[in-house]
Every structure is written in C-alpha cells, then in structure tokens.
Specification:
Elements (H helix, E strand, L loop, with lengths): L1 H10 L9 H15 L11 E3 L2 H14 L17 H12 L10 H15 L4 E3 H5 L22
Helix pairs in contact: 1-2, 3-5, 4-5
C-alpha cells in the first residue's frame, strides 16, 4: 500500500515525465530506504535534511500558491537521458542563501524537493539557506546641505 501511494505521488511530479516505470519504482525504493535511520545516507556537512513534515508543509504551501509552472516541466519531444541530473544541478545553484528573497524562490525550492526525491530519495538544503535572514534596510537621513523645507516668499 505504501509503495503504491509513493509511486502515485512521484508520478504526479512534472519532472517524473522523463522517467520510465522501472525508474519510478527504483525512486520509491530509494524513498523507503532513506526514510529508515539505519539505511539513510548521512547528511552532508553544512546541510540540513528535510523530514517528512517539512516536505509535506512545503508542498501544502506550494499548492496554495499555485505551483508548479510550465518552466518546471521537462521540454517536449525527445528528452536527453541526463536532463533530470542537469535539472538537479541547476536547482542546487538556485537554492542558495543569497537568492532566498528572489520572487521565484518558492517555486524553485519545490522543484528542488521534487527532483531530490526522484533522484536521491531524500531532500537536503544548505544550512545557511534555511537560516538566512535578509539584511535590514536602514532608513537614511537626508544630507545636511539639502534643505528639507522651502520658505515661501
């Protein structure tokens, strides 16, 4: 029952269109393996591994915002075998702390989660990305040599 549900969930990802049935089943096997602490891949230094709750919340938030967009779907026609790996590399570059405030950030984050689940069976994000706080904007005073009021004459 769990395998069937996971397979259905993965098939709903736009990026899954480039995978064959046996590849999707292998992705399900990876998800199950990675969900068990005794068989999970160790988290890389400087990375934070998303748990099931964090992944679910990201998808709930993303669905509320209306994601994915056409940009998240694989190209039409013949797709190269390495398209999904290349997509993962692109998304790894996009999900960086300094890009967190960009308008497309949530869409790209959700795409990274989907692709990581398909390829790796788990989701890791840079710790600095998750801890990022945008710099505070400090209001500046007008320069002293510019008058702030004009005398009426």
């Amino acid at each position: 029952m769990l395998r069937k549900r996971l397979l259905e969930d993965l098939q709903a990802f736009p990026e899954a269109a480039v995978l064959e049935e046996h590849q999707l089943k292998e992705a399900v096997d990876r998800l199950i393996k990675e969900s068990k602490p005794e068989t999970a891949t160790p988290t890389a230094k400087g990375m934070v591994r998303f748990g099931d709750d964090q992944i679910s919340m990201a998808f709930i938030h993303g669905n509320w915002l209306g994601f994915p967009t056409i940009e998240d779907f694989p190209p039409t026609g013949v797709v190269s075998l390495g398209w999904l790996d290349e997509r993962r590399r692109q998304l790894d570059l996009e999900v960086q702390p300094e890009k967190r405030e960009e308008p497309d950030n949530m869409r790209l984050l959700l795409a990274k989660i989907r692709v990581d689940l398909l390829i790796k069976g788990y989701v890791e994000l840079p710790e600095l990305y998750l801890d990022y706080t945008s710099p505070k904007v400090v209001a500046r005073s007008p320069p002293k040599h510019i008058p702030t009021a004009v005398a009426s004459g």
